[in-house]
From TrEMBL:
Residues 48-341 form the Glycosyl hydrolase-like domain. SUPFAM superfamilies: (Trans)glycosidases (SSF51445). Keywords: Signal. This is Glycosyl hydrolase-like 10 domain-containing protein. The keyword Lipid metabolism does not apply.
Amino acid sequence: MKHLKYIYIIILLVLVAACSKDDEGILDDGSHSQGGGQTSSSVLPGKELRGVWIATVWGLDWPMEKYDADVQKKLYTDYLDLLVGYNMNAVFFQIRGMADAFYESEYEPWSKYITGSAGVRPDYDVLGFLVEEAHKRGIQFHAWLNPYRIATRANKNAAFPKLDAKIPMELVKDYEKIRVYNPALPEVQERIVNIVKEIITKYDVDGIHMDDYFYPSLEASETMNDGAEFQKYGKDKFKNVEDFRRNNVNTVVRNIQKTIIETRPEVIFSISPAADMERNYNTLFADVNTWAKEGWVDVVIPQLYFATGNDATSFNLRLDLWSQYTYENHLLIGYGIYKFGDSQYGSKFQSSDDLMKQFELASAKPKVKGSVLYSAKNLVENKVGIADAVKAIYGKKVLPPYLGRTAAVLPPTPDNIRLNGADLSWGAVSNVAYYAIYKDNGKERKADLVGITQGTSFKLSEKGVYFVTSLFKNNAESEISETVSY
């Protein structure tokens, strides 16, 4: 009986202490209602990257031959605001399409697509502006560049544009319709890697991105004309010139990622190959399968610009194929929204229904981590309601996923969560890029992401229970903070 007496006393003391602790969680100003200071038992919503390509070569999406700085800025921020409205979270912006630059470069001239004339400095920091405005809106900025292309011409009888003095002529190779950096030269391979290092050192980009332009796709009457390079650099190492070419591209891909890891390891390296694996391997000499197996590229985004169907080139069969050949990289899907509403691409592209089917098929593949749409101006045009379909598909806001090379290291959890009226605030966490604000929907139910900010406060728009997480630049997300009730 004496032991029972002591047990009752201990239980009573524990209950009193618990009640006292709860009382301490309620602020005098009434910012916390009952339940404030508790840890949420809700579930974070799933993550996916939702991006769009903005093409600048020939001014396609931007700046559309508009050379006034204020007009250019507004065109870009209008795109970003559109993405926010569609719950998108990433932009893949072409900053180097023709051995030109949207920034002050040691290696290449200012792009003619900014001012109308190559080599002319604009009156604002273009890439700095592009990155800053994206980050203000919680949108990731992936810097898209083409590794080899320098210029194009209509045919072999036309002249290429004058080569800028920054580009040594001995590094260049000309074909009937395209001028490129010679992929076989070690100096070119080093130069491309140094250009990437220049970008990630000078600017706070979230990713480096390349599309499917590697070795040029030539006219039927042409050859690659690289026998001399093979004799000098490859004949003692490779059985044939095709393996030599693939190794030249492999060297660039491998060394770009190596340089990123050594310089700014949080930067994501992605490549968007053509959908046809055979064409990649034997025409463009892009050995995507090896890149994936070796983990030389972080993210692969195949351009599955096809309708659904039963033939070998259908979206679903290509999706099945690419899903099987994802090894040490993450998989996103590229969608060709530019085809919708254009009669030359067939009946399935004359309504938005097939895009809905494509997304449904991709969502059933566990390896698929998101989507990128080509291209931005097609969202604005909204032919056959394609932008409306995108908005419906994306539904609620989500964060982009962690796409790192190793297991994620989580940032510290925000603390000192408090309210002053509708203003939610919290203590700053060092070395984080963003904070995510969630509305709690109850035990074991998915919370709603209501906002992302670089600051330590956020204005709430409706009543409810809220919590906060912090995110590193690589999208690794902290544990859930304590909750507050508004």
